[in-house]
Write a structure and sequence with these properties.
By secondary structure, the chain is α/β, with parallel strands linked by helices. The chain has one domain: Rossmann fold. Helix content is about 25%, strand content about 20%. It is built from four helices and twelve strands. The strands form three sheets. The chain has an eight-stranded mixed β-sheet with strand order 6-3-2-1-7-10-11-12, with helices on both faces. Strands 4-5 form a two-stranded antiparallel ribbon. The protein has a two-stranded antiparallel sheet with strand order 8-9. Helix 2 packs parallel to helix 3. The protein starts with a helix and ends with a strand.
Length: about 180
């Protein structure tokens, strides 16, 4: 029940922040990614009221591979298909846009959407566990930087977390960069 309530509160804060947002909120995300030029990364195609990383992904694609998540099925980790600005897209599961033709890649940096975050690197997602399973799998093979991207208003003092929840290494908002405690 605590996660349901925290998720509802996070969605409400995100909705309000999204409605108030003006223009490109990617300045700080672009700044962070500039320090990792050429490193394979995965972003996401924003849905509904998610903060949109597309401008930063477009910049990064000029220097190295960029992918977007493709859901393989319930209970499975995500896979990432190479994305380029202007590539043909199709509707994937849950309505997220994915490349028309899958060209699988493995990122070393993952820009993670979320519902709520804490300054300690906690993240509350949609409840499917896709990113937790994915980050656990990637981190078992190589160092993987998880960057939570959100509106500052999505911050929560405390989140109900479980041992399987993967921590964020950085949180980037339209107001700045947060290094978890």
């Amino acid at each position: 029940m605590a996660k349901v309530a925290a998720r509802q509160a996070g969605f409400a804060r995100r909705q309000a922040a999204h409605e108030a947002a003006r223009g490109n909120a990617c300045g700080y995300l672009s700044e962070v990614l500039a320090g990792y030029r050429g490193v394979p990364l995965a972003g996401y195609m924003a849905m509904r009221t998610e903060i949109d990383p597309l401008p930063a992904m477009e910049e990064a694609a000029a220097h190295g591979p960029v992918g977007v998540p493709v859901i393989q099925g319930t209970g499975l980790p995500l896979r990432f298909s190479r994305w380029e600005p202007g590539c043909a897209l199709r509707d994937g599961p849950f309505g997220a846009q994915v490349p028309e033709v899958d060209d699988w890649m493995e990122p070393e940096i993952v820009i993670v959407p979320l519902v709520a975050f804490s300054r300690t690197g906690g993240r509350l997602g949609y409840g499917g566990g896709f990113y937790d399973r994915t980050l656990e799998r990637l981190r078992a093979h190589h160092a993987t930087l998880a960057i939570g991207f959100a509106y500052a208003a999505q911050e929560a003092d405390v989140l109900p977390l479980e041992p399987t929840d993967q921590p964020l290494d950085l949180i980037v908002t339209e107001r700045g960069i947060i290094t978890p405690d």
